[in-house]
Amino acid sequence: MRPIDTVRTLAFSAALTVFAPAHAAVADAPRVIELTQLPCQFLESEGGKDRGYQSRSIKDCEAINARTGAQRVAEAKPLALKPGKYVFRVTNKNVPYELGFWLRGASAAGRVTLPSVSGGGLMPGKTQDYEIELKPGEYVYSCPLNTTPDYKLVVR
Question: I want to staple 103 with a disulfide (CB 3.0 to 4.6 A). Which of 44, 98, 133, 141 is the partner?
């Protein structure tokens, strides 16, 4: 090997060493799932269809979802994800009161064995991140303060 080729090879090897850890960090970065809360619903969870519900309080959504929630969830496609780290980025759009987010196991056993994340403080117009590392299983997510249906999430 000529001296110049040796220098190029060493430089290339050094570059790989420098960039490899950065690439590994990107691979470990959580995936972002964006969700938008409208009155009584998550927009993306219902195929992007804004139902046009109006709500001034939790009672309004309780009444709306008592009539329509089960059918809407039956028609909704479950969110399907792979195990790993996620950030659920939730936005309060047009709901005139504080909201939250709650992701948990779908069954009583799942609530004990699967990870969960929850929190409030999601004021009108605000976006908030909820970080979680999902394991295989069946989950549901909702907003207890906006009284949305329990939307399905499957991790395989």
Answer: 141
In the sheet that holds 41-42, the strands lie side by side as 41-42, 31-38, 84-92, 127-134
pLDDT at 5 over 70: no
Complete DSSP assignment for 95-142: -SS-EEEEEEESSHHHHHHS--EEEEEE-TT-EEEEEEEE-SEEEEEE
Average pLDDT over residues 16-32: 63
* Angstrom distance (rounded) from CA 53 to CA 59: 13
Domains of the chain (ranges, CATH numbers): 30-155 (2.60.40.420)
| Cα–Cα distance measured from residue 39 to residue 33, given in angstroms and rounded to the nearest whole number | 20
CA distance linking residue 24 with residue 32, whole number of Å: 17
CB contact set of 64 (below 8 Å; sequence gap of 6+): 40, 53, 55
pLDDT in tens, 25-62: 566 899 999 999 999 999 999 999 999 999 999 999 99
Task: State whether residue 7 is helix, strand or coil.
Answer: helix
141 pLDDT exceeds 90?
A: yes
Reply yes or no on whether the pLDDT at 95 is more than 70: yes
Q: Residue 90 burial by CB count (10 A; 0-12/13-18/19+): exposed, middle or buried?
A: buried
